[in-house]
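S.,

As promised, the guanine run. Input:
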Amino acid sequence: MDLLTLNQLDQVDFVGVIGFVFEGSSWIAAAAWEQRPFATREVLHAALCAQLAVAPLERKLALISAHPDLVGRAARAGTLDATSTGEQAAAGLNALKAEEVALFDRYNAAYRERFGFPFVICARDNKKDAILAAFPQRLQHSREQEIATALREIERIAWLRLADVLEP
Ligand code: GUN
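Predicted complex:
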């Protein structure tokens, strides 16, 4: 779809097209719709991120928590949606050895135990080795640092998803 068309949609249809870019948090697109029209994809993305930035902490945590674990149970069972399946495959996470799967399990569990939410990294920007290197580093951060990092990664994930559905 092009931006001209998106700008003309009513709120329900607008959310229907781009509501998915922030995993499970279509309220972000619904709120940003009030600011249409958007001149560029960059301006639209900035408006979406601005809604997220001013949201209460509980909403930010709910957004982070909506992300499926990388190489998690859903990924292995094949029950992820197409978007997440594609993103995990882009990082090469769909073809791991058993030892690597076990390593992801341990890291995912340790991260969740420490911070109370899942590890979020933009899987399309990071290959398996970069992700496995990020786990031990990020496990040393404070919870505040990790909330900020997760939200930054989520903004990047949202940008790539927007670019998938909107012509430049
Ligand atoms: N969980 C952690 N990173 C990601 C990602 O890039 N995409 C999806 N769908 N889930 C994730």
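The mean pLDDT is 97. Residues 67-68, 70, 84, 87, 120-123, 157 surround guanine (CB under 6 Å).

- D.
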